[in-house]
Amino acid sequence: MPAVVVGIVVAVITIGKFVYEVVKWVYDIIVKPITRVIEIINTVRDFVRGIVK
To answer: Residue 23 needs a FRET pair 20 to 30 A away by CA distance; which of 12, 16, 41, 52 works?
Structure first.
């Protein structure tokens, strides 16, 4: 019985690591550029608002 539990724990950890890597990869490719674009838009908007005032 303990051997089965150990096997399940190892499997969960392995799958968890894999999922973590995939999520990190997706984050780097999709989320980072979007947040960068949003930051640029906000900076430009603040800049324009400063000019308008």
So the answer is: 41
In a domain, 13, yes or no: no
Residue 22 has which token pair?
């995939």
Question: Does residue 9 lie in a domain region?
Answer: no
Q: Range of 35's domain?
A: 23-53
pLDDT tens per residue across all 53 residues of the chain: 799 999 999 999 999 999 999 999 999 999 999 999 999 999 999 999 999 87
